Amino acid sequence: MGLTLEANINMSDTLHFPKLNGSNYDSWATSMKSALQSCFLWLYINGEEDMPTVVKSTPSSADRISKEYKSWKEDREQYKTWLRMNSTAMGLLNGSIDSTQLGHVANLSTSKEIWDTLY
């Protein structure tokens, strides 16, 4: 995972367009894509930043200087960064959808799934 930037996002500064309401998809999608791109989040929508492997537990070695531990720690940080960025994108997407449309995406777990479902 190459992206290490984190978006510092103020939703009121980012979302200056009507919410998706079922009849305005084309204009909403254009505006939403621009908003996500401006926050470096479009990479999570278009699949360029894939979800890294889930890191479950600390390696069995208690040696905190081992290569295994260092690799585990790097993988864990990448996963946590991906989760934060994906959650931010999901929040922006969900915040830009009218409540009458949220049922279509309520049970989805990634920003890419939300975008693909709405498309």
Describe this structure in words.
There is one protein chain. The protein is mainly α and 119 residues long. The protein is 50% helix and 0% strand. It has one domain. The protein contains five helices and no strands. The longest helix is centred in the C-terminal third of the chain and has 29 residues, at 67-95. The two termini are 26 Å apart.
What brief labels describe this structure?
119 residues, mainly alpha, 0% strand, single chain
Quick overview:
The protein has helices at residues 11-14, 25-38, 42-45, 67-95, 111-118. The protein is mostly helical. The longest helix has 29 residues, at 67-95.
Q: What can be said about the biggest beta sheet?
A: none
3D shape: elongated
**N/C terminus separation:** 26 Å
- The total beta strand count reads 0
Structural class: mainly alpha
Q: Average pLDDT value?
A: 84
Q: How much of the polypeptide forms β-strand, as a percent range? A: under 5%
> How many domains make up the 3D coordinates?
1
- Rg result: 17 Å
Count of separate DSSP helical elements: 5
Helix content: 40-55%
